[in-house]
Amino acid sequence: MSFSTDGLARACAGHPKRTLAGWLVAVLVSFIVIALLLGDALTSEGDVTSNPESKQAEALIHESFPPEPTPSEIVVVRSDRYTVDDPAFEAKVRELSERGEALGIVADAQSYYASEEEALVSKDRHATMVPLVMRSDEVAPLVELVQSADGQDGFQVSITGSLTADADFEKLSEEDLQKGELFIGLPAALIILLLVFGAVVAGLVPVLLGLLSIVIAVALTALVGQAFEVSFFVVNMISAMGLALGIDYALFILSRFREERGRGLEKIDAIVASGATASRAVLFSGMAFVLAMCGMLLVPDTILRSLALGAILVGIVSVLAALTLLPAVLSLLGNRVNAGRIPVIGRRAISSAGSEGRFWSWLVGGVMRRPLLSLVAATALLLAATIPLFSIDTGFSGLSTLPDRFPSKQGFDALNRDFPGTGVDPAQIVVQGDVGSAPVQTAIAELTASLANQDAFGSPAQPVSDGGDTVLISVPVAGDADGTAATAAIRHLRSDLIPQAFGDLETTVLVGGATAESVDYFDIVGNWLPIVFAFVLGLSLILLTVAFRSIVIPAVAIALNLLSVGAAYGLLVLVFQKGVGDGLLGFQQVDTIEAWVPLFLFSVLFGLSMDYQVFLLSRIKERYSQTGDTAGAVSFGVGSTARLITGAALIIIAVFGGFAAGDLVMFQQMGFGVAVALLVDATIVRSILVPASMKLLGDWNWYLPSWLHWLPDVHVEGQAAAEPAAAATKPPESSAPATG
To answer: For helices 358-369 and 690-697, what crossing angle results, to 10°?
Structure first.
């Protein structure tokens, strides 16, 4: 390679203060950029960049009908004592309306007492709803007003709607992410690092590098956000992946440095040796991760693209920090990296650096004695875990999945109780053509009659455009706008009711609205999933073929990673859709898996799995280059890296497991999916499937067809330093400063 990781390590270790100063300047500039630009760069809105039916309907409605303010929130007022005809009930509603108008954020309140519209009164006449047109997105003062009125004089007052729900989802996501990252993920990661390294300083260095990578990546995102729309979820993605990748990469290189010091190398030589081996593996690991995340950039969805952008940026920064800043820090610390050694654990962790763990060697030895049996048994177990995947249903977890403590959920329950079939997000059926002709009029009448016979739809409104060529049929959709019943109703409307009514008429009929947008989103993500799979698998195959000069190793690595991803999908469906163990784990059973979760999980899991695969295989290849013994190389590689890979996986499991401990279903599914897949990957795949398959393949592991010999020989495994003449000297275990 023209790019030399060991040369870079030598340069940074030789000028540590300059390197550190450069990174400190980058951090300071990043804080300034974040303070000035981040607020304007992020948006809470998501959008698809393609042109599905719902967007076409929205454009046609905007073109044909003058924009009119529509209700976005609904206040439900109920009294078990009074009916709406009692003066006390009317006085209560009028009082609430006056107080709402005084806030200055309500443009119009559609009260029963002003319109005498019976649709605003429940069947038992003990409740009324007040649809509200808002002046802006600021809904917090109105929610506070409703909460203060609830329970007074025996009246139950609640509110729900799109703005209220958005505010509650945003609040819950912030709570869950903060708890997951700061109160669970970061402390757990630090504890795991202390156990792996056995010393406080060695445990803190990877965390500090992870935090630094997060800051710089957020600043880069703020710059990109000046030109492109970026979702605010990108910050959480950067935080999670920055901790995971920054810690992992530093963990691998720092462990190799301690191993080389234990072999007797001087400080700078140990840093260079680490740069020639572990740093090179980290570089390829980072490339594999970035390529996996590029798959999400293909999907025409601003949120998924934002998540991919954040992961790619923090991945690149993490690699750069590991390759440049870490050698400089190690040069300054020397043996002080072992300062604050933990009793018992510390001495064992330092002295065993780079050696084969007793337990892991025993496990791998047993697997390689019966490789075929081990391979078949482990594969069968993962395939069995994958079976529930075939009954997966994707969708959105809407208002109905929010905890009961949130105002929008309370209002949603009240609305469904007293006004079933009512919502603030109606389906909008736009009909354009010769709408005045008898055939089209007949078709419209047939469609409205069909809607009246469906429990999922309410009473429609039917305005006509000023030009007389467009009709808008606005019909309420019952229940949760993102729920399975609502989405099934829209699919039934599009595929059955509209074709039955309009047949072969030369008329444009499109369905829009919030639920239609959700249905289109599900279809877009589902259609792009196999494309992303093919893209990521293809690029990974190319990268690993170049890295290891073999077509067998990449093919096996991809197959094993697909097994772990499939098992994660299956267990996700089993727990969340089927409800197996959901109560024990503290999760909520739902009807669907979030539509974006399978695609997100595949990209993240494949990228992280390839991280560990490259690190493990590079160590195996390094040993094989020295001995020519595949079985011995596999045994040494797995035994010497299992402790590190398991520790690295546990760190990411802790970070994403923190998300799963929250209340938001989408984060529960994301966190559980990542955690269980990495647990499978670090145990069954790395400890059983990899050694069993490589033992069975033997020298075929390194097969490269002659027609591919033109590929560059990059030596991802690097070249380990030779044993120093003073190898017999005692390894530097003291926490006292070392001069080099």
So the answer is: 50
Per-residue pLDDT tens digits for 200-215: 888 889 889 989 999 9
Asked if 561 and 613 count as a contact pair (C-beta separation under 8 A), the reply is yes
Residue environment code for 57-67, b if the CB has 16+ CB neighbours within 10 A, otherwise e: bbebbeebeee
Cα(9)–Cα(327) distance, integer angstroms: 6
**DSSP E strand stretches across 117-275:** 127-134, 155-161, 230-231
Tokens (6 digits) for 276: 């020639």
Gap between the Cα atoms of 275 and 257, Å rounded: 9
Map out the domains of the chain with their CATH numbers: 5-45+167-389+519-578+590-703 (no CATH), 73-166 (3.30.70), 426-512 (3.30.70.100)
d(CA 471, CA 490): 18
Residue 37 CA, distance from chain mean position: 24
What is the Cβ-side half-sphere exposure of residue 657, based on CA atoms within 13 angstroms? 18
User: Are the C-beta atoms of residues 198 and 348 closer than 8 Å to each other?
Assistant: yes
pTM here? Answer: 0.83
Q: What is the pLDDT of residues 333-376, one digit of tens each?
A: 988 888 888 876 766 666 665 555 677 778 888 888 899 999 99
Residue entry with tokens 């974006």: 596
Question: What confidence tens digit (pLDDT) does each residue in 665-719 have?
Answer: 888 898 899 889 888 888 888 889 989 998 998 888 888 898 888 887 776 666 5
What end-to-end distance do the CA atoms of the chain give, in Å? Answer: 28
Distance from C-alpha of 81 to C-alpha of 78, rounded to nearest angstrom: 9
